[in-house]
Amino acid sequence: MNRNLISLILGGGKGTRLFPLTRDRSKPAVPLAGKYRLIDVPISNCLNSGINRVYLITQFNSVSLHRHIRETYKFDRFSGGFVEILAAQQAMDQAESDWYQGTADAVRKNLRYIEQHGIEHVLILSGDQLYRMNFDDMLHTHRGAKADVTIATTPVNAAAAKGFGIMQLDSTGRVTDFVEKPQTDEQLEQVRTDPEWLKSFGIIANSRDYLASMGIYLFNRDLLVDLLKSTSHEDFGKEIFPQAISDHKVHVHLFDDYWEDIGTIKAFYDANLALAGPNPPFEFNYEDAPIYTQSRYLPASRLLGGAYHRSLISDGCVIEPGTTIENSVIGLRTHVGRNATIRNTFIMGADFYQKPEHRAYDLESNRPPLGIGEGSVIDGAIVDKNCRVGRNVHLVPPEGDKQDREFGPVLMRDGILVLPKHAELPDGWSVDKAR
């Protein structure tokens, strides 16, 4: 165990780019791959790296996230480990009482936890990324370079570089400049990394000549405390790092494996459906470094007949005869009626089972029961938890139209239809009828 290192996971943002998935929950609590939540990824990476003292900083819509943490990550009293929530809160010190104003400000308002005795390093992580990293390797890089700060970076091409903070390095890997989302050719050329330098570390660039910050930072504790106490800077990328680069030794840790920033509806949708393919870019069934989540003690799913291709079907589902499921992710406790068709869709499932008598009552009352109704067709969509989709519903994006808009309770984002949590679609509903 890394006894002198603690981890801080930033989970307090509003998550506006993931709306409506973040309407009722924080970003890190958004479901992933049928049975996980986004927060399970950074916490699992910490635990698999021997880091068992983890703080999670939260602010918006954090109730379900708190419940998931409480019910999932429990340590015995002898290990000294914990995953502890640091919610925005009122304090006697007025400086600590306001809402978090940015990533650096969120950490500043929780310095008393960082300043505890025996802590030498602080690892700062994001709560909305999909990757697998051994942080021991990053700590080795940090110590080997005798760095004050180490930033995890991944090579990207010029088009992708415009959406990230990009590092400029010297020949030793020390960061000499940091440009947030470079847009012009001049800015890009300024931070371009020599492919031969990358090759010396075993990385073949293939036009990925720019090192993007992954939002993963390793600080010497005392320096982090000094930087936050001596300034009022609110953001690491825009304010803290430019100062640290000029005054201190900032190095990069190279990472050339799968990493996805799941910050938008399209990125979230694409990342989840990619997991259902024959060669997924990220594997959850990795014996040496599993991704942990809540144990729900659900039974195996019942597939009562139909066709299933390139899909993930989670625990506790009931799939009625005649159903076609293709290139989709089906979440926990999903009930799919007869002869339904689900393609290119992430159905998040349900938080509870609906008893047979309650399903029968709903049908008699002309209310769709929980799940997907008989004969419905869903394609190119995200169906959030606890939704009720009636019989013969046609939930398919209008052809050739990718403009963000609303069709009754359904929102379209980046050409993807999103049915928010707890929403209902009556029998026979379709996009055309809702226009």
Automatic annotation (TrEMBL):
Alphabetized GO MF terms: ATP binding; glucose-1-phosphate adenylyltransferase activity
UniProt EC number: 2.7.7.27
Ranges for domain Nucleotidyl transferase: 7-275
Record has Transferase as a keyword: yes
GO biological process per UniProt: glycogen biosynthetic process
Keywords: ATP-binding, Carbohydrate metabolism, Glycogen metabolism, Nucleotide-binding, Nucleotidyltransferase, Transferase
Pfam families, per the entry: LbH_GLGC, NTP_transferase
Claim: Ribonucleoprotein is one of the keywords in the record: no
PROSITE patterns recorded: ADP_GLC_PYROPHOSPH_1, ADP_GLC_PYROPHOSPH_2
InterPro entries: ADP-Glc_PPase, ADP_Glu_pyroP_CS, NTP_transferase_dom, Nucleotide-diphossugar_trans, Trimer_LpxA-like_sf
CDD domains on file: ADP_Glucose_PP (cd02508), LbH_G1P_AT_C (cd04651)
Entry's family note: Belongs to the bacterial/plant glucose-1-phosphate adenylyltransferase family.
Protein name stated in the entry: Glucose-1-phosphate adenylyltransferase
